[in-house]
Amino acid sequence: MNVILDILVIVGALGIFIYGMKMMSEGIQKVAGKRLRKLLSGMTRNRLTGIITGFFTTSVVQSSSATTVMVVGFVNAGLLTLVQASGVIMGANIGTTITGWIVSVLGFKANIEVFALIVVAVSFPMLFSKKDNLKNLAEFMIGFGILFIGLSILKDSVPDLRQNPEALEFLNQFTGYGYGSVLIFIAVGTLLTIVVQSSSATMAITLVLIAEGWINFETGTAMVLGENIGTTITANLAALVGNIHAKRAARFHSVFNLLGVIWVLIIFFPFLDFVDWLNQRLFHDASIYTVVQDPENLSANNTVLTDGLALFHTTFNIINTFLLFFVAPYLVRLIVKLVPSKGSDDEGFKLTHISSGLMSTPELSIQEALKELQQFGRLIEKMCANVMVMMFKTPRNRDKLYMKIRDREDITDRLQNEITTYMAKLGQYRLSEDSAGKVKGMIRMANDLERMGDIFYKLAINKRKQEEQKKLMPESIATELDLYFDQIYRAIKQMNKNMLAPAGEIDMEQAYENEREINETRDHLKQVVYERIESGQYGVEEGILYLDFVNSAEKLGDHIINVNQALSGIK
To answer: Measured between alpha carbons, how far is residue 113 from residues 117, 210, 218 in Å?
Structure first.
């Protein structure tokens, strides 16, 4: 009965630790949401900036899983290439080592329970502030305090070895097999991380076990290597519902971490000696192995071990990133071969990644939803180009072009439905006033973009019917409509440019100028239609068809300006 109770207490302490980390992560995202969104916009430059982005994002969010799942989503949506995503994933691996240092430095070198309670006491009154920034800062600080309260309980819950010598004997039977023992505890670390779904939490457990003397340094480092493998499962689960590109990004994460573990295993014991030497030069005079050989002094010298373990984690990930940075393009080619495409359906766009677990990070999820809307805008731009070719050119395969427009209209319906559903759920969280306004604007943008897709599909249908009925469009009409739709196309490109622009840099002046030109052209063309019908240049039926095209284009202009206004916060 006592054993069961001890296990439940340890699981409860771990739950408090994870909850504190989640609360801290959400709070810091609300405080620094705009900065994080700006930081994430640097992802698409190159692998080096990707590493920096991945490092800082993970350091702030305190979750490499959240970063890699988000990257899988961006690749799935076509917003990042696999090579660009590889840099972010490598940076996230380095960023996640910050958690180990926080736990080691603050968790084992101070009275953390008192420290945590002071943090909660100072920040609690801020929860009642009318200012969102203060409330969000309080949430971050309280989460920080709860995290260390959980860590304190976890430390106190681990049974005293002097009272449980049989437990140490049980563990020792797995430590006498050399590399075999290392492999056993790599598996333990992997399974524990998969179960807990947090490499940070598993790292905290490992630090507690090594500080209390339950495991030695070699065992702890083996578990850390296992955690690096186990943490990849989250991204792979998220990629199950994604397209082939998302699967490849998740697989890159797995292969990258596995290769790191393999080369460390080849030089495992010399690498531990190197970390021990580095630990002595940077932090402590005592050797890790000296502390291990003196179990009576573990309570006094456990910081040598915990710092050593955190240093091992950071050193391993930095060296692994450095070694594999130069071969990343070749790794990408390998991944493409390992995960071959099964056809056009596998290559196709899917949006389901926005429901892959990021609801716990609402501020960053807004950025992800904006990326989806940017993808939506590019799809509308492609539909506009397709319709213009179908209406005013002579495409080789008109039926195939029509089917492409129809398929893209189906995608716009799904995009609108999934984005608005996602944003509605996101709106249920306690967001800052600025973020809440963005959520409402993004829902309106999704609706306007979907209606534009409907209009383009309707235009394609009308053009197809016209051709089937052998009703050719007079050359004068075709020329004028071609120029009119060229204005629409340029307005859509400006809209998409504004969707990519940072906040405060949206060019509304050009957007309004485009709308004015579209409206003036509409009025002119309507007048031309009436005049030509009256003069008998063409019949009423042709005139009605002409007016239908003109009115459809004018409606597109209205939706375009609606999107621009939602972006700028006017609506």
So the answer is: 6, 20, 29
At 108-164, the pLDDT tens digits run 555 666 777 887 888 888 878 777 777 777 887 887 777 777 767 766 665 554 455
* Closest by Cα among 181, 214, 187 to 10: 214
Per-residue confidence band for 296, with pLDDT thresholds at 50, 70 and 90: low
Do 65 and 102 contact (CB within 8 A), yes or no?
A: no
- Helix/strand/coil percent split, the chain, to 5: 85, 0, 15
Nearest to 558 by CA among 510, 503, 492: 492
CA distance 354 to 206: 32
Distance CA 225, CA 214 (A): 18
CB 211 within 8 A of CB 302: yes
Give the residue with greater pLDDT, 398 vs 259: 259
Average pLDDT, the chain: 76
Tokens 């002409």, located at residue: 546
Burial of 445 (C-beta count, 10 Å sphere; 0-12/13-18/19+): buried
In terms of pTM, does the model score above 0.70?
A: no
* Amino acid at position 267, single letter: I
Residue pLDDT, tens place only, 448-465 = 999 999 999 888 888 888
Residue 262 near residue 68, CB atoms below 8 Å: no
| DSSP string covering 397-441 | -HHHHHHHHHHHHHHHHHHHHHHHHHHHHHTTS---HHHHHHHHH
Give Cα 322 to chain centroid, integer Å.
23
Distance CA 184, CA 477 (A): 76
For residue 449, the model assigns a pLDDT of 92
For residues 186 and 165, give the distance between their C-alpha atoms in angstroms, rounded to a whole number: 24
Nearest to 72 by CA among 91, 86, 53: 86
Give percent above pLDDT 90 in the chain. Answer: 4
**Token pair 């080789």: residue:** 396
Please report the domains of the chain, with CATH numbers, ordered by start residue.
2-344 (no CATH), 361-568 (1.20.58.220)
Nearest-angstrom CA–CA distance, 310 and 203 = 9
